[in-house]
Amino acid sequence: MSRSVSASVEPAVLAFDIFGTVVDWRSGIIHQGARLGRRRAIEADWGAVADAWRGRYVPTMRRVNAGELPWGNLDRLHRLMLDEIAPTVGLDMLDEADRTELVHAWHRLPPWPDAVEGLHRLRRRFDIVTLSNGGIALLTHMAKTAALPWDAILSAELVRRYKPERAVYDLVPELFGVPHARVLMVAAHLDDLRAARAAGLMTAYVHRPLEHGPDRTLEIPAEGEFDIMAADFLDLAVRLRA
Amino acid sequence: MSRSVSASVEPAVLAFDIFGTVVDWRSGIIHQGARLGRRRAIEADWGAVADAWRGRYVPTMRRVNAGELPWGNLDRLHRLMLDEIAPTVGLDMLDEADRTELVHAWHRLPPWPDAVEGLHRLRRRFDIVTLSNGGIALLTHMAKTAALPWDAILSAELVRRYKPERAVYDLVPELFGVPHARVLMVAAHLDDLRAARAAGLMTAYVHRPLEHGPDRTLEIPAEGEFDIMAADFLDLAVRLRA
User: Fold this and answer.
1) Taking CB atoms and an 8 Å limit, are B152 and A151 in contact across chains?
2) What pTM did the predictor assign?
3) DSSP assignment of B115-161, as one string?
């Protein structure tokens, strides 16, 4: 991964995707699920639970964006998705308190090892904000738990539409009063970056090979598709001279 | 000031007014105005400038809330107000760059001496957020300059209405998913606190006797009008057992 940001364009604000890009949702859900399982004597394949749960993510967002589901923040949708998958992953016995606890597990996910230090470096030179489908409360609690030094918490919740809808990407230039071309979207996901680019934002791909666990191979973007390709947030800081 | 928060009610989120409550806008504007004045060889009574400028604040918000002025964030309104007062305070000679610089002075205001330490203490126990008529970019840059450790930046800009409109106060319970009665509005201003209380929020009055300079006497609220009366943020932390 060799491409550095073009010297002619300097971003003002860096907007970060969160799940998979900043935090390791899969390990976090497995760990917290297993802890709940031990306490409640529930046997489950928590890796399969995490994957099935996250597997409902994109289709559920789509249903909200298409108007098939009324607006609900990600906590509400996580609960809906959990109720949907519970029978298929052997978790029918979960009671109300268990389900609430698991939904809140998404507020307490571990950052990737480079994330906190990388963000601190980037923050010295740029405004760094979240731009996630997670809700404001979720992102706020995650920042506190994981010590993520955001300058501001922005969320799809503020426009009641989910990424990849354009309104979400427009939030950053609108609220920061900067041109779209001076906002850099940072994400580990091609669909997110492609939508950001279509909205006029700069894009940085960060490689997170373990997002879906050790057994999945990721699609790597073509050289040149995005403005920056970085191995992790420390590499991103170097490329941005932060 | 003796009233402590009722033991039966525990706030979850503390929402802070900013100008006058967290930062000393008057000293900040005087200081930055005087610096611009020295550089540009402009003579002015910067205390009078600060007072006249801030004097346009409430009437201008009212015009926006009444629909007499189109929505604009506080930067835009600060510019409008500055243009209005410039002839009356002998600042007609300010050029475009000067005016932009002065508008941005509101992004770089000094915190009251107790504010940063008080917020750090309160943050250990509560979610602490801004709830200001200042815009998201303004509040974000101010937090960075003044090292204010907000958990999230909320602003009237998110609902495109200004305090004391109820929609602004509703933002916090809505986004944090908590009842109104578990949100504590912290402010040095009676009108802000009264509107917060009318919206169903808890209220904490913080005494900022120097907000309008050394020569103004403040109206002190009656004992019992608000849930908490605090001398400063350290006193507020003690009263909230943070």
Assistant:
1) no
2) 0.95
3) HHHHHHHHHHHSEEEEEESS-HHHHHHHHHHHT---SEEEEGGGTT-
